[in-house]
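Task 17 of the worksheet. Students: predict the tertiary structure of the chain below and write it out as structure tokens. Keep your answer in the requested format; marks are given for formatting as well as content.
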Amino acid sequence: MQKVLSIDGRIIPAMVLTEIETRTGKATSELFDLVAGTSTGGILALGLTKPEQDGAPEYSAERLRELYETEGEKIFDRPVWHRLHSGWGLAEEKYPSKGIEEVAKRYFKDVYLAEALTEVLVTAYEIERRGPWFFKRRHARDKNREGDNFLMRDVAKGQPVNIAHRGGAGCLRTPSGTRSFWIAMGEPGEP
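Model answer:
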């Protein structure tokens, strides 16, 4: 039987996973066969499956819960000049991308999706094809799918944008440079 963990955004899933890890004495990547996430849950999914150099999980659920508390202001910083320029989020993204880009680079460094400790799936919306895009470890490791092995930081920086940075877009290029595409940095209908 396969065990699947599906994580949505906000801090509550991190709090619940902290309790599960405490009670079992195991890392989330050891407890589930697939960790999936959308929105800021995508950051949790990537963080919980990111390896350290020794092959152990780098982040516990508790550490990622702390990420919300320590980095939230940076990710969701909204300077007055940006509010004016963006028409309070109506003409452009509500929050500038600088904060999430800095945090994603610091937390995920140069680790690729194929290096995840267990299967991971993170959702996005691909603008040019007008449909969902699923970042998957399985695809990143597939030799027949050259170009699906993205840096975790690039996948992560599009996730909180799905709720808070509505209206933006980001171009992702494959590490080999063979393919690029635009992903939406916002979900339709989200405030």
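Marker's comment: The two ends are 38 Å apart (CA to CA). DSSP finds nine helices and six strands in the chain.
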